Amino acid sequence: MKNFLFSLFLGTSLWSFGQGTQVSFVDFQRSMARPAVAMQNKLDTLQKQFAAKGLQWPAKNIYIRSFKYDSQLEIWVSNSRKEPYRLFKTYRVCALAGSLGPKRMQGDYQVPEGFYYINEFNPNSNYHLSLGINYPNISDRILADPIKPGGDIYIHGSCVTVGCIPVTDEQIDEIYILAAHAKSAGQDYIPVHIFPIKYNSKKSVDYLATLTKTDEKLKTFASRLEAVYDHFEVTRQLPVIMTDSRGDYQFDGLSKKVVVTDKPVVKQKRAPVQHRTRNIAQVADVVLQWPQFPGGGPNFLKYLDKMGKRLVVLLPQGIKKANMVVEFIIDADGVPVNFKVLQGVNEEFDDDLISAMEQMPEWEPAILGDKPVAKKIKQSFVIEK
Question: pTM of this prediction?
Answer without folding.
Answer: 0.64
